[in-house]
Amino acid sequence: xxxxxxxxxxxxxxxxxxxxxxxxxxxxxxxxxxxxxxxxxxxxxxxxxxxxxxxxxxxxxxxxxxxxxxxxxxxxxxxxxxxxxxxxxxxxxxxxxxxxxxxxxxxxxxxxxxxxxxxxxxxxxxxxxxxxxxxxxxxxxxxxxxxxxxxxxxxxxxxxxxxxxxxxxxxxxxxxxxxxxxxxxxxxxxxxxxxxxxxxxxxxxxxxxxxxxxxxxxxxxxxxxxxxxxxxxxxxxxxxxxxxxxxxxxxxxxxxxxxxxxxxxxxxxxxxxxxxxxxxxxxxxxxxxxxxxxxxxxxxxxxxxxxxxxxxxxxxxxxxxxxxxxxxxxxxxxxxxxxxxxxxxxxxxxxxxxxxxxxxxxxxxxxxxxxxxxxxxxxxxxxxxxxxxxxxxxxxxxxxxxxxxxxxxxxxxxxxxxxxxxxxxxxxxxxxxxxxxxxxxxxxxxxxxxxxxxxxxxxxxxxxxxxxxxxxxxxxxxxxxxxxxxxxxxxxxxxxxxxxxxxxxxxxxxxxxxxxxxxxxxxxxxxxxxxxxxxxxxxxxxxxxxxxxxxxxxxxxxxxxxxxxxxxxxxxxxxxxxxxxxxxxxxxxxxxxxxxxxxxxxxxxxxxxxxxxxxxxxxxxxxxxxxxxxxxxxxxxxxxxxxxxxxxxxxxxxxxxxxxxxxxxxxxxxxxxxxxxxxxxxxxxxxxxxxxxxxxxxxxxxxxxxxxxxxxxxxxxxxxxxxxxxxxxxxxxxxxxxxxxxxxxxxxxxxxxxxxxxxxxxxxxxxxxxxxxxxxxxxxxxxxxxxxxxxxxxxxxxxxxxxxxxxxxxxxxxxxxxxxxxxxxxxxxxxxxxxxxxxxxxxxxxxxxxxxxxxxxxxxxxxxxxxxxxxxxxxxxxxxxxxxxxxxxxxxxxxxxxxxxxxxxxxxxxxxxxxxxxxxxxxxxxxxxxxxxxxxxxxxxxxxxxxxxxxxxxxxxxxxxxxxxxxxxxxxxxxxxxxxxxxxxxxxxxxxxxxxxxxxxxxxxxxxxxxxxxxxxxxxxxxxxxxxxxxxxxxxxxxxxxxxxxxxxxxxxxxxxxxxxxxxxxxxxxxxxxxxxxxxxxxxxxxxxxxxxxxxxxxxxxxxxxxxxxxxxxxxxxxxxxxxxxxxxxxxxxxxxxxxxxxxxxxxxxxxxxxxxxxxxxxxxxxxxxxxxxxxxxxxxxxxxxxxxxxxxxxxxxxxxxxxxxxxxxxxxxxxxxxxxxxxxxxxxxxxxxxxxxxxxxxxxxxxxxxxxxxxxxxxxxxxxxxxxxx
Length: 1271
Hints:
By secondary structure, this protein is an alpha+beta fold. The chain has 32 helices and 62 strands.
């Protein structure tokens, strides 16, 4: 490296202020240089030193200047305590002062914030602030610097410390650097957390932003006045009291001196984007220096070594691109490389490195072998296997690796070029070019140089050919010349060259560079040129090594052109062409060389070329051809084989014909599937031999080949023509050509069921159902056709076909049910299973639906599914009650259990909605009745899954309070206290439990149910079940409001059939009604007295209601004071004297009411409801309505409803309650049977229910009475 003064200036002294340049600053783009000299601020053109502005703003010496990062402002500060902000056009825009002189200042590298420091404070200013923020300090600030990211500000203090502060000026850390003042600091621009500090104890110190010391202190030998990073943080430039400026590595290792001045150098600053530095001296001198970094490198064959960061050596393998770095930790001056040796010259020694494994040409592990501990000066340095040669002007000095000077040559002229050209160990030869043009060869063991050529101009570059018989020279006139060292003749000359290199692997090939071009010369052929930037320094095989500035590039140059030139000669030079190809050509070039050598019957070159490209087929051909030559086969036959291998089939056929082997030509074209050509040669063969079988064989081969080459269309056509339908069908199906395949179906005979079946199978697999249908119809395969309809989901067609073929029932119903299940049509799927004869699958579906509905708390759905399950179970009963089998009894019990769950879940759904819904959707009285019904059903047994007794009791308690049933409410709240309740209910229940105790311990009378059989007033909650506490008659409830309905069940005498009962009903109803009206007696105005002790009148009563009333009156005696009404039933037992058997039986508790033919005749049609069972093995049930004013209906599910509520429920839900029967088009769903047209109406437009027959005759499952009556 060397330095050159670009310009310097010493301004004259003005205003009596000494001319001292304390600080300088470059504009960020490097175009301006601002210097504080004396009391003026001078602005220079950084390129040529032209003074642009001399600014007078300070009254005393200027100590510091700084430029903002955007280049729009710069600042100056000095001994007059003033900071002035200037624009880039040298216009002052702002001034502020401190209490002391300004020691240093610096702009934030990212913002416009300016930091200025004195001996007592630090000021921070930015354009956004109205005032300067000042922070007191305890010691004088000598220097300051911002980190590259602008987050931290470092202050170098006179007390030997460094203070690290944030952007606001708050101290974050203090680093103790010693006792000497920290005069200059700077942050590394690339390693942003590294701080370099120059102290006045002559040391350079490095610290991290965390306060830790990065490396050991470097003793400079002088006091550093300015420390700055240079070249993007790779180097450090330091100036100081030794009156010089020196360049150091970023670790503080001395490299070289930049400048030596006559006075102290106060400041040094690098010019941005350039290899220039500017310095300011104590005598006022301002100067800029250019740093010229020379390339220090060495090359031997494919190993290249060069200097990096001035102290490191990098060795690069040019073939593998592998690199290794050697850290010398000192200034590297020269580098030389030879085979396994590497010599590195440092300022005070020469270090010799060698490879760990010298026999491995790719080994890159260098280790120190020895060193010459002597300061040696030289211009050029080369190394051999055991020596180091130093070149100094005209002198060559030979040193052993031990540092012993063994020999010295003094030449006639200055040495311009020297190169080691190889040789035996310790006897290597040197190629030396002199300024006088003399070219010498020197052997290290010979004191006498050997003259090779006397050239006319100074030598710039030399190289010897591989055989040492030719010499390439580049002179100072940029000419390249080739000399024959045997004859001393010049055999080639060309202009515009700067370097030259012989190919180390081919004698007749060299290259040279110059004028931006690379020229390659092979033998006596014309030059081959291509663009290239840089200098050629090596040529090995097909790789050219080029040095461009400091970067070594490896360029692959194909030798194809040179190889083809050897092949283009009249007498083809295969040997030289092969040698050139070995240097590096493409695979296509190798193949071309091999083929041409093969055609020329140069089998040796052809074999080696084919081996290079690993073409085994052609290697075998070469061996076969060589064996044929040895056997004496005609050359035309051998050439025909070669032509066939090369694809020149027509030439091969002609050669076969010349050799009399036409059959081989025919065979060749047949193997190639060129059947037209094969036919032509087959016809030729048949003419010569008289055979025709060859033509037919070719046609068969052509069909098979069409399939092999995937010409399936042609192959299928040929197979059809050949009547090979099975192969044609397979091809057409594989390619999805269904239109063509259906044409094959139409061509096939109806009896060819095998091929038709194949076609139908392919159509069906690929969803071509229409074509499959056509094929199956042709086959008349009904079962397969049904399967096709099923696969295509054409259920109407499938069922239509099933009607004619019922034996295929399972083939339709099973997949149809699965289809319905996949589409969530579970009810239809269940019916499909039933219709298909798979009731167990239908039941399984229903069980799954029921289970899921319960788990998902869809209790209404669960009730419906339990209802359906119970109906299926009931239908399965096959024997009547009097002779019922054990299996049917199990089914009957299961029916009772399922139907009971259906009722409970149906009722519980209302409770669940009331608990979970935030809105009130059900009337309070309904919820009251529902909760009573559920408790009476579940108190004495385990409730069904997911039915919460807590919810039921909570709703009962809540609505009991609302309806004034306080006694029941107290029971409910007491029950809730024993149950686990949700947290949000607990407080409410506790409060209501207290409130209910303040209420009467009774229930409202209007709420208490009355038994319609015995007229007994029942409690609101019978813990034993939902039946009368007196007579045991079950309460028959409406499954809309769950009110107790006025119905009493009766049974027929055993000798009366259901059909006879229907006919007997109402026969005498009109007569008895008339008698009833005429029996009314009017006794005038006297007191009305009903006396039952004047004869036995019970037997004369025809109305069951009268008997019922008398049964009630027989248990109580009522005496009204002050009146004449007296009822007496204690004078004889009159029950047995009643004429109405129905009324008499009502009075007997816990018994079944049986009616005879007379009672049936007396009953009106409108007051009897008949419930029919869906199973004919189960007898019907008969109920009598006890209140004519309540219009009742029998629903589809077998439950009973008030007509108004039933119609409203149907309108609201769109179907009937419980059973979910759909509404008929003409109106609401009603129970089966005809009503009594003569019955009185209970409201406009509505008929009173007569002897109705329920569609689904269901018993109401109650704890009492049991199923004894039908068992």
